[in-house]
Write a structure and sequence with these properties.
single chain; Extradiol_RC_dioxygenase; 2,3-Dihydroxybiphenyl 1,2-Dioxygenase, domain 1; 5 helices; Ring-cleaving dioxygenase; 16 strands
């Protein structure tokens, strides 16, 4: 094994109401809406990207918010819980902020770390954990200071229909290191400082159903385009059948489904989200690839309007 991913590049999930999606991830969690575009395969659906100030790899959660989407069911073959990392000493702030917006939280412990678990407005399972690793976010919103703001992903919990196969792929294909195990979970760590801690429940899970409130895929980082080509060969050599490399405008992508049922993507760090608009204006305009520009008026007319806004907390 020669290739090692630095960790998670992005996670992509399904939602229904686009404004409620923006309200939760930008309005409550304080992430920056770094890109407002469309699903290139279904241009009547937004593709929204939320991350840190620049949408750095390891910070990006993306959504396909489709009002007619069915409700999904979280289960095997999916990311079960998406983990965000926050600065040390900030969990109490987040517990208060979430509860002030009517979001119920549960405190849990795993591998001697304390987590706040909650769900978004669609039922997607999320958690926050404090860690020293990773740079602080410089995107400040609604009074969330750098000392409190979400840095990016801490990692994820992968729900697998075949945990042994999934864990083998993490270690022997993606290059993560197994660092801990207990009766419930095995823990793997990538070489990066965010999006780097992956937990896998030891028990196999029944297959989930895609739909609003579930994750579609998890993407792993490739450092550049040359390494991305190497990753494709490595995936083939491991015995999986990756797609061709696809230009997603902000990164190149390839996809394969690992033996535990989870759709994996490998995505390049470059070129990033300031590729087609300035860093200062990220997320303000609907950005379309050039082959859709001639249909801009029709596309915009079919999309519900959205805005990033400061939300009032729950009263009383």
């Amino acid at each position: 094994m020669t290739l090692q991913t630095a960790g998670i590049h992005h996670i992509t999930a399904f939602a229904r109401n686009p404004q409620e999606n923006v309200d939760f991830y930008a309005g409550i969690l304080g992430l920056r809406l770094v890109k407002k575009t469309i699903n290139f395969d279904a241009p009547d659906v937004y593709h929204l990207y939320f991350g840190n100030e620049s949408g750095s790899p390891g910070t990006i959660i993306t959504f396909f918010p489709w009002p007619d989407s069915r409700k999904g069911r979280i289960g095997g073959g999916q990311v079960g819980v998406t983990t965000y990392v926050v600065p040390q000493g900030s969990l109490a702030f987040w517990e208060n902020r979430l509860e002030s917006h009517g979001v119920s939280v549960t405190k849990v412990s795993r591998f001697s770390e304390q987590y706040l678990q909650f769900t978004d407005n669609e039922g997607l399972r999320l958690e926050l954990v404090e860690r020293e690793e990773g740079p602080e976010s410089t995107w400040l919103f609604d009074g969330i200071t750098a000392a409190k703001a979400i840095k990016g992903f801490g990692g994820a919990i992968l729900f697998s229909t075949n945990p042994m196969k999934t864990m083998d792929a993490l270690q022997n294909l993606l290059g993560l290191e197994k660092v801990a195990e207990d009766v419930a979970y095995a823990r793997y760590r990538a070489k990066g400082d965010i999006g780097n801690v992956i937990d896998v429940p030891m028990a196999a899970m029944g297959r989930g159903i895609d739909g609003a409130g579930t994750v579609h895929h998890i993407a792993w980082r490739a450092s550049d385009f040359e390494q991305h080509t190497e990753w494709r060969s490595s995936v083939q050599d491991y015995g999986y059948r990756p797609t061709d490399i696809i230009d997603r405008q902000y990164f190149n992508a390839l996809y394969f489904r690992e033996a535990g049922g989870i759709l994996f993507e490998i995505a390049t760090d470059p070129p990033g989200f300031a590729h087609d608009e300035s860093a200062e204006t990220l997320g303000e305009k609907l950005m379309l690839p050039e082959w859709f520009e001639a249909s801009r008026s029709q596309i915009e007319a079919n999309l519900l309007p959205i805005q990033v806004r400061v939300l009032e907390g729950k009263q009383g």
